[in-house]
Design goal:
By secondary structure, this protein is α/β, with parallel strands linked by helices. It has a single domain, classed as Glutaredoxin (3-Layer(aba) Sandwich), CATH 3.40.30. It is built from eight helices and seven strands.
Length: about 180
């Protein structure tokens, strides 16, 4: 598939979350929906992003929006990670260990670990330090370690209102920036 653009129809696909199985994307898009595509649950900064989204989730719902975080992780890894930290998320994690959604949405990996970071190494180090200060450590590696993130805001009619294909792991809006985009 070609990359989505603002105004594109968001594609229909089946998915499982850590809580439910065999959902259809078009069935869950009943209001503004953010699909926040990260790497995997063991990635320290990805886990920190999930934590930040959860902290601010009431601000998403105040704007009549919902969030689905897409990860390369399988259900067991996500469930075990959340259970081991006692985390109950106010949103769902889409588990895509075969990376079918990444392929469908044309979310490419970086060509190397250096390209994953690009010129944002200092920003990544700061974010990783903040994640460690919050208690997150690196877990199991899953999927493609060089996978780049992406972000899509889809309206209740299934039309993409915002799209961001990251050029590095740090090339994404912050949670606060995302809320302001809603």
């Amino acid at each position: 598939m070609t990359r989505l653009e603002k105004g594109s129809v968001f594609p229909a696909f089946r998915f499982d979350t850590e809580k439910e199985e065999n959902l259809l994307s078009t069935d869950v898009i009943d209001r503004k929906t953010v699909f926040w595509v990260l790497r995997y649950i063991g990635c320290t900064v990805c886990r920190y992003d999930i934590h930040l989204i959860a902290q601010k989730y009431e601000e998403f719902t105040a704007k009549n929006a919902q969030v689905y975080v897409v990860m390369q992780s399988d259900r067991t890894h996500v469930q075990n990670n959340l259970n081991s930290t006692g985390t109950v998320l106010p949103f769902s994690v889409i588990c895509d260990p075969k990376m079918k959604i990444y392929d469908l949405l044309d979310i490419q990996p970086a060509s190397s670990m250096d390209d994953l970071v690009k010129d944002r190494r200092e920003d990544l180090q700061k974010k990783a330090a903040a994640a460690r200060e919050t208690g997150f450590t690196h877990g199991d590696y899953e999927g493609n370690e060089q996978q780049l993130p992406a972000l899509f805001i889809v309206n209740e009619k299934g039309i993409v209102e915002y799209v961001r294909y990251a050029e590095s792991i740090m090339d994404m809006p912050s949670v606060n920036e995302m809320i302001s985009l809603l």
